[in-house]
Amino acid sequence: MSSAKPESTSDAERLAAIEADLAELGTLDEVPVSIPGLRTTLDILRPTDTDRLLERAADDPEQNLPYWAELWPSGIALAGAIARQPHLVRGRRTLEIGCGLGITAAMAVALGARLLATDHSPEALLLARRNALRFAGEEPETLQLNWRSPDNPLVESVNDDYAVVLAADVLYEARDVTPLLDLIERVVAPRGLLWLAEPGRRPAGRFLEQAAAHGWSGTTTEWDGPWPDVKDEGVIVRVHQLRRRARAVRQRQRGRAQVPPLLDKKL
Fold it and tell me: Given the DSSP bridges, would you call strands 28-34 and 41-47 parallel, antiparallel or unpaired?
């Protein structure tokens, strides 16, 4: 699913076209979202009635619940983290796994990333396009993708290609750990960067342990908001910047990957 639009189409016309495609979601609210560490607010369009989305997902055999419709602190923190170091994404081929409403995507596009935003939900991709266009005046490219699926088209078509991979709050359950590790092993360039934001769920800890065993190491920062939803008060998001060590890259290419553990340094 591509977000490409004719260059002659005005931003207002593009916004109107996207919002027309979102009509089946019912009422939408525009919520101001403050980005931590910045004097920046994103106006994020999101569905008003999430119960309706839950009913639509009830018969999904893969149990892809509409997590994408929430304003998760991890996506907001990741937007703040990349804004603090824009040189790490500017002009670089960037992939976002599970873009949701597009908060991180909007910031990445505004900072000049060459972004491909992915999500299993076509509605999420539309909202990510709309919210990025509203904030940055540009849209990301988009691809409908269930990254947990072993036969997903991205893994089949891309290998060691992305300089930066962004992922916010994608590790909800134990079943998520191995597919995410398999995916980043395939799509992150040999000296590329994985930027992972998570609020301390147990699967994230398991993922970091397994990533360390595969040669990924880096630094961690902590973010405490402010978050737009009062129920998230007190949530601490950890944002990890992980790279594969050069030695690990060489060993992976030779078919062996035994390297030192992850360095989890607080900045």
Answer: antiparallel
pLDDT digits (tens, 9 = 90+) for 196-205: 999 999 999 9
- Measure Cα distances from 180 to 13, 71, 89, 149, 198 in Å: 37, 22, 21, 10, 13
Structure tokens given for 140:
């990301």
Q: Specify the pTM.
A: 0.85
Residue 160 confidence (pLDDT)? 64
Estimate to the nearest angstrom the gap between the alpha carbon of 40 and the chain centroid. 19
Three-state DSSP string of the chain: CCCCCCCCCCHHHHHHHHHHHCHHHCCEEEEEEECCCCCCEEEEEEECCHHHHHHHHCCCCCCCCCHHHCCCHHHHHHHHHHHHCHHHCCCCEEEEECCCCCHHHHHHHHCCCEEEEEECCHHHHHHHHHHHHHHHCCCCEEEECCCCCCCCHHHHHCCCCEEEEEEECCCCCHHHHHHHHHHHHHHEEEEEEEEEEECCCHHHHHHHHHHHHCCEEEEEEEECCCCCCHHHCCCCEEEEEEEECHHHHHHHHCCCCCCCCCCEEEC
Domains of the chain: 11-266 (3.40.50.150)
Give me 32's structure tokens. 């101001």
Buried b / exposed e across 188-208, counting CB within 10 Å, b at 16+? bbeebbbbbbbbeeebbebbb
Spatial distance between the Cα atoms of 259 and 12, rounded to a whole number of angstroms: 51
Structure tokens at 16: 């109107």
Return the residue matching tokens 């060993």: 251
Average pLDDT over the chain, rounded to an integer: 85
